[in-house]
Amino acid sequence: MARQRYPLNALRAFEAAGRHGRMARAAEELNVTHSAISRQVQQLEDLLGVALFEGPKNALRLTDAGRTLLSGLTSAFDQIDMSVRMVADSEDGPLDVSCLGTLTMRWLIPRLHRFQETHSSIDVRLTASDNPVDFARDGFDVAIRVGNDPWPDGCALVPLFNEQVGLVVAPALWKQAGENPANIPALHTKTRLFAWTAWLERSGIHIEPTAGTEYEHFYFMLEAATAGLGMCIAPWPLVSDDIRAGRLLAPFGFTDSGQHYVALRRARQHRKSLLFCEWLQREAERYVAESKPSEY
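The structure corresponding to this sequence follows.
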């Protein structure tokens, strides 16, 4: 069945106006005049035989028909945008990166300015996620994760660094507890339910962690530890700055967790993804060379 042809410019004008709620904002986005947006929307309404907006010109609102059409058009234009970016091989434009939330805040963002200095035309858009990677389903270009083999099919693997974890605690709380972990609440996070068990097995340290608060997010748990609410198990990349600054200490040092930080990208050769992953690998090598968790 042949698809009916509709005026693409009019559909784009309406979608932008409906999404922004103002024709002036739509005109700015599409780089046309306000009157051009108004004419395109009117043309679309005449073609469809329904009103898409109602109310005075300075307070337009979508009709029921407008809301229905907007929902479908926004999804369609998003899909078109994602499909084009998946095949385009350019050094310009957006690059969608999915990364573990706390690693994004404590490791990636503080270094990202170095990538932007040399690749200012690439707009790195960050999304915090620790969900399993599925490039066939998700719209991002690169995913940074921690774990082990096997990694998902259909992606290229860029090793970054091994993970080392240790018990961290605020110095004042450690002193107050007489440097005895049995006197300190053990903090937990839902994103790593077995962190304590795994660390105890690998470190060979024999302590009995007391019951403590469980936090929804890893970042909340680290903030609680820094505030002196308890001790927790944390990876070196997420606490190295706090330890160097004296906000946290690691009385038993750090040990390999058996997991690895990696960057995953679509297997297809994509120039922006390649540039970003090459930069990530250099940053990881630099980080490993400068970072010595065994010294703390």
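The chain has three domains: 8-87, 93-154+259-295, 163-258.
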